[in-house]
Amino acid sequence: MVHTGVSNGFRLEVMEATPGGEALRTCLQCGTCGGSCPSSADMDHTPREIFAMIDAGMRDEVLRSNTPWYCVACYYCMTRCPKEIPITDLMYTLKRMSVRARLFDDSDAPDFSESFIGYVENYGRSFEFGLATRYHLTHKPLKAVGSGGLALQMIGKSRLSLRPTRIRQMDQLKAILAKAKTLEGV
Amino acid sequence: MDYGYYPGCSMSHSARPYDVSTQAVAAAFDMHLHEIDDWNCCGATEYISLNKPAAYALVGRNLALAAQQDGNHQVVAPCSACYLNLRKANHYMEEYPKLAEMTNTALAAGGLHYDPGTLRIRHLLDVIYTDVGIEAIEARVSKPLTGLKIAPYYGCLIVRPNLGEEFDDSEQPTKLDELLTALGAEVVDFPLKAACCGGHMTQISADTAFSMMRRLLLSASDNGADMIVTICPMCQLNLDAYQGQVNRHFRADFNLPVLFFTQMIGLAIGLPPGSLGIGQEIVSAEAALAKIGTEPEKKPARKPRGRKRDKSIPMPRMESEVTHG
To answer: For A126, phi and psi rounded to 5 degrees?
Structure first.
């Protein structure tokens, strides 16, 4: 990339938080990522633009962008990138940084992740029914009515459990996750 | 053939038909799947969006438990998202020692440790295709899927990202095509076979997910498919359970059943549909499966409720209510 040359703490932070993130330095701005992305039409900046913005040190604009939240993690961009930049992993890093900086306005996507993880941290397993009800009733109460029909169909087909499963050694998992949360910034 | 087995959360919930058909097929081909004792969720795409050390520690616990328990050091995952998370943590920990150190520091709090690269993580399709082998499967086919047109759907995470030791092509994979052909099915051209189903977007931005699903359903039906067959619980859930909503959203009339590849293997080797979770799909596969002469087992009709112990005043009854004998 034609780098701005400005010493850029933001870019460093993004790269360091991403396994293999240093490859971001080699971005050619070719746009293969955005061209391969099935949801780029919904993004306010394509991945290529986001990388240029990171290079320009536009921290707030990047962390406010909906781009990482529209990433569906299909890994097409990452597989096709001629410089082997771990683009999907960079998108995850931007999500984490954005949540910490509280810069992304729309709370739907981060809250969905929070709800999902809430069950994992307490039971060790995910819980589709609890997730759907908890998240939908807080975020999309009107749509929850529509989803209710689908939930009933799924229950009728024995594909939705009404009770979560808890792993046996929940204390062990809790200790591991508590320790993990004390480690490293992002 | 012995393997460590990581079913993942969806197998006991929305992907129950995948679970029962996997067990049935494994038993038929002498594959011993030893479930990892006390495994936990892989974190899907959610934990890594919030906390990296916790996300790797969550997956790390599964790897550590599997390495302790699995004699063969091979772990099979039927779910593509679980497959990716286990495989990626295994690979990244090996490639980035700092990440391995961080993950092991967290695991130590629970008395666990994992040496990256100890395990080989494999997808169920890979194990069935490679280890059981197409020829062995073909030799067992007693009810070929002749006349059934199938769109083989791989989705993303079984073929991407490239982390070395790839099982199939990341853009145009063919292994599932070969397997279905060996079962006697006609595999239709399906250019979007490795495109994304929308993943968790149905919950966050349904419009985004619906348009991705519409493209897939359109491509499969334009190419004449009677059904879609997939290898991933998320892909199956999205295309099956949300097909009605996609139809309403786009005023479309797709009617494409979406089954798991293990269900198709089971049918072709003559296992009864009921033992394969056939009938648990939201978009019924009944009409499509009738093409190969498979009829879902009918549930025995419910006996009319008797009124023997009814002590109320005798009342006239409708003809249909009268029980015989």
So the answer is: -80, 165
Interface contact flag, A72 B196, Cβ < 8 Å: yes
pTM of the full structure:
0.91
Q: Are A159 and B212 a contacting pair at CB < 8 A?
A: no
List, in order, residues 6 or more apart from A41 with CB less than 8 Å away: none
| Residues in contact with B169: Cβ distance below 8 Å, sequence separation at least 6, in sequence order | B159
Residues of A in contact with B46 (CB under 8 A): 112-113, 116-117
Picking from B49, B110, B242, the nearest residue to A173 by CB comes out as B110
**Residues B110-159: pLDDT tens digits?**
999 999 999 999 999 999 999 999 999 999 999 999 999 999 999 999 99
- ipTM exceeding cut-off 0.85 for this assembly: yes
Contact B241 A154 (CB under 8 A): yes
Looking at 1.10.3570.10, 1.10.1060.10, 2.40.30.60, 3.40.50.2300, the CATH number of the domain A9-101 comes to 1.10.1060.10
* Residue closest to A131 by CA, chosen among A155, A113, A108, A145: A113
Contact between B204 and A73 using a beta-carbon 8 Å cutoff: no
